Amino acid sequence: MKHPQIKVLVAPLDWGLGHATRCIPVIRELLLQQAEVIIAASGNGFQLLKNTFPDSTFIDIPGIRIHYPAKGSMTLSIVIQLPAIFKAIRKEKEMLSSMIDSHGITHVVSDNRYGLYDNRVKSAFISHQVSIKNPGLLKFTEPLLYRMHKKRIENFHELWIPDFQGSENLAGSLTETPGLTIPKKYTGILSRFNHSIQKADKKYESIALLSGPEPQRSLLEKKLKDYFLTLAEKCLIIQGIPGIPSRNLINNVEIINAITDTELQQWLHPDTTLFCRPGYSTLMDLAILGHRKNVFIPTPGQTEQEYLADRLKNLYSYTIVNQNDPVPDAVQPGKQLPDNHRKNLISSIISDFLR
User: Fold this and answer.
1) Contacts of 185 (CB under 8 A, 6+ apart)
2) Sign of the torsion formed by the C-alpha atoms of 9, 349, 22 and 204
3) Which stretches in the chain have pLDDT values below 70?
4) DSSP-derived secondary structure letter, 169
5) Distance CA 261, CA 40 (A)
6) pLDDT of residue 260
7) Among 33, 56, 266, 317, which is disulfide-ready with 200 (CB 3.0 to 4.6 Å)?
8) pLDDT (tens digit, 9 = 90+) per residue, 333-344?
9) DSSP letter string over 122-148?
């Protein structure tokens, strides 16, 4: 079905690459359904999507600039920055109003950008983390945080949850939505990868797939580079910084700034150990790829990743390492992550959304 008058703004948050990568299958499906797609992004996510969809229209929209501490409480750091966050959300809303006028936008798909709603257009909000997790003594604040988060989400017409229903879903209790007043729709796993790429011969003993905010991304890169240099085997570090391709070789360690989906899918041999964050988009990718020899290193203080890490350890027997702890020499494969690609509902959800 063609939709010649429909123009969809797709806008991922710019905290790491995960929000951008999980928008890739959404954009592909919108294009398949003949919608015109305008992509609003910033930072590395802008560059990644520009590389993936070079013929699309792009708008460089400022992100919500969060400063993550090298040490100390991330929760406290974000609380201190709340006035700046709310200001950025108001700015997003103003920019959307202008984009509707200038580009004729009829629909909005917002991945965790809270200001991108307008009563003139139909809007969907993508999030797997509806229920916010807090550590230790701050756990009592979770009901209040949920009510605040729920109120923000209910500015949109629909909530799209990139997961599937059931007790063995991928995100666990993060997707719980008691009392939500707008329709919620489970899309299934949203991954940029597919099952058709054939594995090549084993090329690397270990691969580090880096992502997330600074300074923690760089701190993890240094830690894993130092560890890889103690090994005899060939290792690869993918910095997660899209842009002009760069490649360096330090002894046995190859360092590249970014990688194509096909290259990663080919090089991720079943016997290669993958070191990465337990970011949710990364987990969705690994569920599709079926890779099981993984070491997950949560971003310090990021409670969502810490929750997912505990879940990965308890349900799927994966190796979890704190960023300041030694890297284990021996890694046993975990269990296959839930993969419901045969039940992916994003096509029908988008079809209903565009009506």
Assistant:
1) 158, 159, 160, 161, 345, 349
2) negative
3) 1-4, 64-78, 81, 195-198, 340-344
4) -
5) 22
6) 87
7) 266
8) 999 998 765 566
9) EEEEE-S--SPP--GGGGGGHHHHHHH
Closest by alpha carbon to 344, among 195, 243, 198? 195
Q: Which amino acid is at 347?
A: S
Q: Please name which of 216, 188, 212, 169 lies closest in space to residue 311, comparing C-alpha atoms.
A: 169
User: Which residues touch 96 (CB under 8 Å, ≥6 apart)?
Assistant: 9, 105, 108, 115, 116, 117, 118
- Cβ–Cβ under 8 Å, residues 266 and 200: yes
With beta carbons less than 8 A apart as the criterion, state whether 323 and 300 touch. Answer: yes
Alpha-carbon dihedral angle through residues 81, 85, 91, 92, given to the nearest 10 degrees: 150
The residue to which tokens 């919108």 are assigned: 30
Cα 185 from Cα 171, distance rounded (Å): 15
CB 199 within 8 A of CB 291: no
Nearest-10 crossing angle of helices 43-52, 18-32: 30
Helices marked H in the chain — which ranges?
18-32, 43-52, 74-80, 82-103, 142-153, 216-228, 261-267, 280-289, 303-316, 346-354
Angle (CA) 148 153 159, round 5°: 140
Q: What single letter denotes the amino acid at residue 91?
A: K
CB 249 within 8 A of CB 183: no
Provide the token pair at 77: 């750091």
> In terms of DSSP bridges, do strands 253-256 and 247-250 run parallel, antiparallel, or are they unpaired?
antiparallel
pTM of the model: 0.90
Based on its alpha-carbon atoms, the radius of gyration of the chain, rounded to whole angstroms, reads 20
